[in-house]
Amino acid sequence: MTDEAQAKAPAQAKFALQRIYIKDASFESPSAPVIFTKAWKPKIQVDLNTRSAAVADNNFEVILTVTITAKLEDDETAFLVEIHQGGLFVVEGVEGEQMRQLLGIACPNMLFPYLREAVDSLVIKGGFPALALQPVNFEVLYRQAQQQAEQKAAAEPKTH
Predict the structure, then answer these.
(1) In its keyword annotation, does this UniProt entry include Iron (predicted)?
(2) What is the DSSP letter of 32?
(3) What number of other Cβ atoms are within 10 A of residue 67's Cβ?
(4) Is the pLDDT of residue 6 over 60?
(5) Domain boundaries, the chain
(6) What pLDDT was estimated at residue 15?
(7) What long-range pairs does 96-100 form, CB within 8 A, spacing at least 24?
(8) I need a surface site. Which of 33, 40, 50, 81 has the fewest CB within 10 A?
(9) How confident is the model at residue 11 (pLDDT cuts 50, 70, 90)?
(10) What is the biggest distance separating any 2 CA atoms in the chain, rounded to whole angstroms?
(11) How far apart are CA 69 and CA 102, in angstroms?
C-alpha cells in the first residue's frame, strides 16, 4: 500500500487495558465489637457508579465505585465499605457514541470482577461473612442513564 493510500485508509480501532488498580478503599464498622454479638440478618444497600476521564493521548481512566452499607434490623450500621476500582485504558480510532459505550459498558465490565473481589476481601477482613456482589449488566445501566438524561433534557424549559 502506498503512503497516500495508507493516509486515506480508516484508522484501525484499538482498545486495550493498561492497568487495574484500587484508587480508594475504605471500611468502617462503627458498632464493632458489639455488632458481632447480634443475629446476622443484615439489610444490604449497594450503590454503584461509573465515571471516566481522559488522562493523556488516547488514555482514559475509568473508575467503578461501589458503596455498600449493611444494617441490622434495629437500623444499626454493621459496616460500610466503599471502593473506587480504577482502570487505565488505551482507546484509539473510536469516537462519539461508540467511545461512550466502551467507557460506560466494556470498561466497567472488565473492572467489576476486581471490584467484587476487593469488596469481599475487605468485608471478610472486617470480621463479617463473605459478601459476593451479584453480576451487573452495565449495558442496561448505561441505557437507563441515557434515557434519564434525555428525559431531563426534554423536561427543561427551552430558552430562545
Answers:
(1) no
(2) T
(3) 15
(4) no
(5) 12-153
(6) 94
(7) none
(8) 33
(9) low
(10) 76
(11) 29
Cβ pair 51, 62 in contact under 8 A: yes
Instruction: Return the C-alpha cell found at 100.
Output: 461512550
Integer Cα distance of 70 and 46 in angstroms: 9
| Beta-sheet pairing, 14-28 with 59-71 | unpaired
Q: What is the pTM of this model?
A: 0.84
Task: Look at residues 9, 6, 18, 11 and name the one whose alpha carbon lies nearest to residue 93.
Answer: 11
pLDDT in tens, 101-110: 999 999 999 9
Amino acid (1-letter code) at residue 4: E
Share above pLDDT 70 across residues of the chain, in percent, rounded to a whole number: 91
Mean pLDDT computed over every residue of the chain: 91
Contact (Cβ atoms closer than 8 angstroms) between residue 33 and residue 26 = no
Closest CA to 141 of 10, 58, 49: 49
Give the CATH fold of the 12-153 domain. Answer: Bacterial Protein-export protein SecB (3.10.420)
Q: The C-alpha cell of 12 is what?
A: 484501525
β pairing state of 43-56 and 59-71: antiparallel
* Structure confidence at residue 153 (pLDDT): 83
Return the amino acid letter for 142. Answer: Y
